[in-house]
Structure formats: structure tokens, C-alpha cells
Hints:
Largest sheet of chain A: 5 strands, mixed
Largest interface: B-C, 117 and 115 residues
CATH topology of the largest domain in chain C: Cytochrome C Oxidase, Chain A
Shape of chain A: flat
CATH architecture of the largest domain in chain C: Up-down Bundle
Distance between the termini of chain C: 32 Å
Oligomer: heterotrimer
Shape of chain C: globular
Structural class of chain C: mainly alpha
Strand content of chain A: 25-35%
Number of strands of chain C: 0
Amino acid sequence: MLNDETNKTTEQVExxxxxxxxxxxxxxxxxxxxxxxxxxxxxxFALVPLYDVFCAVxxxxxxxNTEAAVYEAVDVxxxxxxxxxxxxxxxxxxxxxxxxxxxxxxxxPGKMTEVAFYVxxxxxxxxxxxxxxxxxxxxxxxxxxxxxxxxxxxxxxxxGEEAIMPMVFYIDPQLPENITFFTLQYTxxxxxxxxxxxxxxxxxx
Amino acid sequence: xxxxNVTSVGGKHIGSVSVKFRNFxxxxxxxxVACSSFAADVVDTGRSDLNLRPGVTEISNQVYDLHxxxxxxxxxxxxxxxxxxxxxxxVHRKSKGAKPANFHENLTxxxxxxxxxxxxxxxxxxxAAYTLIDMEDASKPDMTVLVTGSQWKWNYSYRDYDxxxxxxxxxxSEQINNTLPKGENYLLEVDRPLVIPTGKKVRFLIxxxxxxxxxxxxxxxxxxxxxPGFINEAWANVIEPxxxxxxxxxxxxxxxxxxxxxxxxxxxxxxxxxxxxxxxITRTAKAEEQRLLSMNMSMDELMTQGxxxxxxxxxxxxxPNGEGLPGVFPALKGSKMALEDIPGHIDIIxxxxxxxxxxxxxxxxxxxxxxxxxxxxxNAWGNNTGDMVQAKDVNAIMNGKE
Amino acid sequence: xxxxxxTNNVADAHEEHGHDDHHHHAPxxxxxxxFTTNHKDIGTLYLWxxxxxxxxxxxxxxxxxxxxxQPGLQIVEPHFFNQMTTVHGLIMVFGAVMxxxxxxxxxxxxxxxxxxxxxxxxxxxxxxxxxxxAFLILLASLFMEGGGPAFGWTFYAPLSTTxxxxxxxxxxxxxxxxxxxxxxGAINVIxxxxxxxxxxxxxxxxxxxxWTWLITAFLLIAVMPxxxxxxxxxxTDKFFGTDFFNAAGGGDPVLFQHIFWFFGHPEVYIxxxxxxxxxxxxxxxxxxxxxxxxASMVYATASIALLSFIVWAHHMFTTGMPVAxxxxxxxxxMLISVPTGVKVFNWxxxxxxxxxxxxxxxxxxxxxxxxxxxxxxxxxxxxIVPVDFQYHDTYFVVAHFHYVLxxxxxxxxxxxxxxxxxxxxxxxxxITLAKWHFWCSLVxxxxxxxxxxxxxxxxxxxxxxxxxxxxxxFNKWISVGGFAFGLSQLIFLAxxxxxxxxQGEPVSSQVWDGAEGLEWxxxxxxxxxxxxxxxxxx
Lengths: 205, 402, 538
């Protein structure tokens, strides 16, 4: 690499008329690198909303729409029947009774369907719940359009209260041919504490 | 000035190379011997000590075949590459008088050994892709089971039948603590295994109640993470009846190594009989619980049942002596909750403590069991409150009528 | 280590620089080491720190292997066992391997490019000294009530957020400091290489070690900030009520894994690229032949680095990804084996028809080539999704990464130390001790990690303190191998202490017949200040 001869000697390195090393100003280079560092740090935080967008577009984590979809008049595809399975779960520590009144439903893509979920707060205190939906296979979530869902908002129930929560949806006829069956799970969480903190903030604003 | 060529000092050079070479060859041969015993070394249910098992589904057999293909290709690559290198180490040694050649690049050779590996990769990728596509289609199942992981047990809920139960490690703690000899299925046995029929497509819906777990049955080649708040799916069509054991495969806390998965596959007729029995048990259990609500248990009955529940369910964290693990799991011995606050004590077992490892046990324990264990905790280890809690007290808390 | 030549240098320095106001008192004692801005001193500090951390992390591994020696719980509680596996991983990754490579970079990069020191010497001092501070914090957390971090070095949420103890805060703080240290070190390396090469030292004349470190430094710049963000999100989810990874609040625990592994995968290449550079320096020397395919080696390293950004989800195949994405990550991961293979072939081609001799550095280098390749091949197997479902989170994975990290990265570091130690000290190290170190390590490391392939395939999961009976025999041998490997490192310690005491035969500048490069043109031991006048590179 230094020169082409393979016979090496161990003489001192040629100290020619080269000037001594002069201190350089590295600040331009350093600043450019620091920008890259800062950029990557911000990029990592940007990954949070980016992930949500990516999942919303590709459905990879099975999350459904968080806002009500608007029903667009589409042709109901009578040739296909899709089976939708509903699971209603309460997370550990959530004392409500939560059941799907319809466990399974066969629908044609494009047709509006309504199912209902029963909830009851058996305890002696008021509780606010959040339902978190999840679909498997994940990609099916892209084609599940909910026009009305209790998962869009917090759901409060006073002590001893019970309710029927409807969920209205239709399946986009664009659903890939190979999907004929999917499961929608709702997990109910007790978010009374954090919801109250948010409510206080809202009031104070 | 040339420097001391260390390798010629003491004339040890040749000896050390031969030893090194011999060592490599003998390790290689050991390796191949081990490889060739793969097929031979099968124990019990086709389980090997050295290798993946073919398993009992079509998919698991495909996976095994893919694994063996990959393995042989990798061994082939290693033999060729190391062979060349070892040859060079023997033949191109300075001590043998080898003079170094001058070449240090060759475009043709470099292109060849970039393209050939690429082609080999394609031979691996194609069968892998086909197997993957086969594995991931969980539609049109004959039966569905909801599998919920929690710290540190599994819950199985049959979607098509009214049967649901928890499945916890059944190995006695004395075996783990080396005071009793270990059984054959040490750490791979549970109190209530999952039972499924053979010859049917069974779909598993997998989720978690707290942290990420992973449900793994090697004989089915199924491993799927249990993510809290999300649901995953997997499926199996088991060919052979038998008992299949797996483990949790994602670090989930203290007892990650102590929450096995046991699945029993029965012939469909046997399965139907079993599930009918289970549904009957569920019905009578509900009736039994209602009956117990109106009864009062004696202190002795409460303490006996309570101790048994405590030791199998609570002692893992709160310790058999009630002292817990400081900073991690609170002590019950001498605690304010156990000495004073009865409603709070019942509530924390029924509803858990959100944001901590204390889960809700309302689904896992009956009201009488909860009443018994609360009574036990309030009277054991010198707590001696004399309090007796009955099933109806638990019922009151659960239904908000304290 | 290089105290004797300082007074010579003082005279030279005054003649050549005429820096009248610049004191060249031979620094000594604690002050020298605390305030040094000299790249050789800082390199030495990093290397000793890394070795000490290697022994500390190794002691934790001994605890793990002692518990796993037999089925049953004999020595530690499961919660403490989880702390050991967690802190062992953190120490080895951030306290041993990375600082060791940084120490080598500090010692060698300036000399190899003909520069007098690193570009930013004072920042260099800070980069090092915050490390012991960070690790003291991490180790201290083990003594907190509730114990230290116990969620694996990968700290997945929500185990690390909702279900962890208060020590998580110290863990986060400690990781932040380690990250800052790495980033500062990387900045220094990049600026030094960009701006301070001697005249004539074009990019394609730089030694491979410099190239691999340049590329590694860019990887560090790109991904350490991502780790910082991930760890910050864990902190806020745990203590400040955010819901990044909490499903109840609209978050997703799998998001954590994406962010972590986006850092995590390039991180493992950060831990191996410098190793590739070291081997590329050593093999040509002892083959007495130039490195085969210098340009391809550079391009292959760059390809590996670029590819490392698009494979992260191969750590997440069981999380429930749709098939299309699993396919993509499978193919991308498999692709990395092509440039890596090219490198292995090039090393073998360098040896081919060379004039080989087998000094200690070469023995470690050859062991690296064989054993790292085994690790790489098991990595290729892991890339295949359907089979990964069986391998994931088992000891097969543990075997894979220990092969690439211990018999890969750590062996390369040992090779590097043996190769350059005579340059640093001016004396040949004790060859008998070195041979004992090599052979004991080689045999024990394989006894330790090879059987892990078998138990993993047979069904033993990772991160468990106790196991089913069918895994008992192999675990016993693995533990024996572990203890033996640990003890073997004491031989290395003895050798290093002897070397530090200036014991051994004096060596010339070139040290090894066949060594080429600027660092072999200067005296051994290397003077405190070198290349204050840049050399001319033809």
C-alpha cells in the first residue's frame, strides 16, 4: 500500500521537507455529523407516528380504524361470504362483565352489519373503560370499516350499571380473495385513573 | 533489520501446526459423528437430544425437512471453505519453504464466488417461501381455542364450547428446590393441559393479559407471541394422538421458565366425550359456587383450603413464609392489608392491582377459594387476626355491595 | 506503558514545533490518566476498561452457568438469575466489546493514517471517562431493593415499563451515558479519518481496519440516537404516563421491538465490522501476501452496513407479522451472507499460496475465520422464517450469537492485542502463556457454545434458570466449558500484567515479518507522540 516493493526495511519514515502537522478546524465536519445524530434521534421519535401510519396503510399489526368510517355506497358482493368471529375480553384487573352477544356472523362484503356487546359494572365504584380492538389476520383490518364502535371513545359505567354497546361495520369488497375468515378481539381496559387526569386537564383548559 | 521470527524459536513451529491441524480435524470428525447420529438418536415421541423433531403435523414435518436441507447446505459450505483453508495451512507454510505468490485480485474468481452463494440462497429461499405460505393460512378451522398468556400460566378458552380453564405448572416446588427427586416430565407438566382433537384444523388465537409471552409447541412447529391488547393466530392439524409439551418462549418475568404448555391430542370421538364432560363440570361448578355462597365454612376448613390455594397460587411471588421479595413482591406477613383492611384485601385479589404484577384472580379462583385464601393470609405467619372471610363476602365485593 | 520515550520526544517536539508555551512534562500518575488527551493513553484506558468489564460480565456468566449446571434451583432465585442474564448482556455489549474496539481505534487509527492524534482529543478523554461512571450506575442498580434490570438486554415493553422495578431509571440513565460515549467516539473517528489523513493516503490506500472503523462509526452515528430514543420512551412510559407501548392507551408493545431492533441489528454489525478489519490486517501479514481483493473488501463492508438497516424484523418473526413482510425480511437477511461470504473467501484467498506462519495473532485469526463462519451459518439458518419459529428464543439463538460475538468479535480483539501489543510495549509478550491462553480458550469456548446448538434444537428456551431433564447432560458440559473459558482468561490477564511491566524480548519496528503499514514504520514501543510531522505516502 505504501509502495510496491515487498521487501520491507524498517527505516524511519521519510521526514522530508513536509511541514509539521498544522491544527485544523474540524467544526464543519463535526457540525454535519451532529446534525445527523440529531436527525436520527428525531427520526426515532418520528417512528411512532410513522408506525401508526404504516400500520393503518398495511394493517400489519391488526389495528382497526380509530375514527368512524363513513359508509360509501358499494355493491354488496353476494358471491362471497366472510365469517367474522368476535372475542370480548377484559384485561386482568378490569372487573366488568363483557360479552359479545353475537359470537360469529357471516356477512357479504359491502353489507352493513350490526352486532352488540353487553357490559356490566358489578362493582361499587364508577369505572371508565377503553376497548382496544385487534384483528387477525392483521391485513384484514384494512378492510374492516366500522361506522359505529364503542372503541372510538372512553366508555363510562356507573357502579352497578349495565349497557348494550352496538358496533356497526361493513367489509370492504376489496378484501383479498384468500381471506374468508377473520377474528376481531376487543380487550377492555380500566382507564378510570388516567381518564380522570385527562378530564381534569380538559376542564382546566 | 529483520526481526525475530517467533515461529522458528525453539523449533516448536512444525509441532504446533500439526497439533492445531489435528485438533481441527478431530473436532470436525466429532461434529460429523454427532450429525450422523441425528437420525438414530430419537427418544420417545421422536424427540431427539440433538436435533429438531419432525413433529406430528404435516407442517411440522415440512419445517423439519427444511431445517435438514439448510443444515446440509451449511455443512457443505463449511466443508468446502474450511477444506480449502486447512489445505492451504498445510501446504503453503513458510516452514515448508513456500514462497508467497504475488496475486491480490482476480475479478473472475470474485464474481464467481459472489454469484454461486447467491444461487445457493435461492435454493434455500424457494422451499422456505412455500412452507411459509402454507403455515400462515388459518382460515376455515374446525375448532378455535383462545390462548391467553399471563404471569405465569396459560388460560385456554374453547370458542366452540363453554369450557375455559387455567393451565399452570404442576411440578412440585420440592422438586425444583431439590428436596424431592425430579419426575420424568419435570417442568413440562401442568394441572390442566389443553385438549384438542386429531385430524381437525384447530386454530389458536393468542393474546396476553400483561406482558409479552409466547406460546410454543415444538411438535406442531407453532410459536406465536402473545401480545397484550393484540391478537395473533396459528393453526395445527395434528396427525397423531399423544401428549405434546412446549414452553413459554418470551421472557416474561420471574417464572418465565415455569409456565409450560401441554397439549393432549385425542381421537375425535374421545375428544367429543372429553369436552362434553368438561362442559358438564363447568355447569356443576357454577351451581356449586351458588350453593357455597349460602354456606359458612369453619375456621379449620378455611385455613386448610386457604393454605392449599396459597401454596399453589400465591406462594410463587409472596413466598411460602409470606415475606415476599422486598421491592418486588410485597410481604403479607405483618402487612397493613392483611391485618386491617378486609375489603381492600378481598378487592386486590379479585381485581388485581393495575400497573403491577398482581393480577386479578377472579377468573382463576372460585369465591370460596378466595375467601379461604384471604382467611389464611390474615391468620398465618403470626398475623392471627382471627378474621374469617366467607364466599358471600367475596361475592359482595365482586358485586359492589360492600 | 510508553513512559521511557517521553523525554526524547520533548526535545523533538521543541525543535519541530517550536511550541514554546506547550509543556511536555512527562505526565505521571493519576493526573496523567485522568486528564490525558493522548490517543495512545486513551486507547490503553479503553482496552483495560473493556478487559475488566469482560471479567465482570464473565463472572455473571459464571453465575448463570453455575445455576444451569444441573436441573433444579440451587444457587440463585429466578429473579436474580434474570438480572444476571440482563446485566451480563449489557456489560458484554456496551462495556466489553464496544469499548475494546474503540480502544483499538484510538491506538491504531491515527498511526495507520499518519495523523498525530485523534481530531478531538479533549472530547476523546470525555468519551472514555463517562464510561466507568455509566457502568458504576448500572452495577449499583443491582443492589437496589427490588434488584437491577431483569428484562433482558433487549428490554422489551411492557416487561420493562409497567412490570419492572425502579432500577429501570438507573438502567435508562446508564444506557444514555454509554450512548453518548459511543457517539462522541464515532464522531472522533469520522472526523479524524476524513480530515487528518497524511498526504498521499487516499481512501483506497487506507488499511482495512481504518475502513471498517469508518463505516462502523457511521453506523454508530445512525443508530445510537435511536437507542437513546427507545430507552427514553421506556422511561416516559414507565414514569411519565406516556403510552408508546401500552395497548390500553392506544400504543403497541410491538412498536418497541421495531424501534429497538432498528438500532439492534446495525448494533451487531457495529460489533463485528472492526473485527473484520482486524482479521484483514493480520492474515496478510502472516501470509506474507497482500490482502486479496482490497476493493471488494471495502465494498463488501459497505454493503453489509447498508443491508443491516433493512433486516431488523428478523428478530421479530414470531410477533405476528403478515407473510409478505416475513418474506421480505427473510430474503434481505439471507442477502447479507453474500458480502460476508465474499470476505471469508478473500481471507482464505489471501492465505492461498502465501507463505504462512502461525504466530499467536494468526492462530486467533484462523480460529476467528472458522468459528465466526460457523456462527454466520447458524445465522443463515435463523433467517429462514418457518424454521425460525422453532429456533427463536431457544439456545440455538444463544449459540449463534455467542459464536459470532465470542469466537468472532472477542477472538478478533485478542488477536489484535497480541498483534499490536509488541508495538505498544516494545517487547514481545510471553509466548508460552499466549499459547496456553489460545488453546485453553479455543477448546473451552467450543465446549461452552457448541452444545448450545443441540439443546436449542431439542427445545430448550432462552433466559430460563431451570430446565427439563432431557437438557441436563449438555448443560453440564456447557457449564464446564464456561468455567474453563473463564479461567483461561486469567492466563491472558497474567500475560498482560507481565507485558505492562516491560518484561520480554525487545522487538524492532516491524515486529512481524510481513507486517506492512505506517504503524510498523515507527519504533517499538511507539513514541508518545507519533507523526507530528505527517509522513509522505506514495
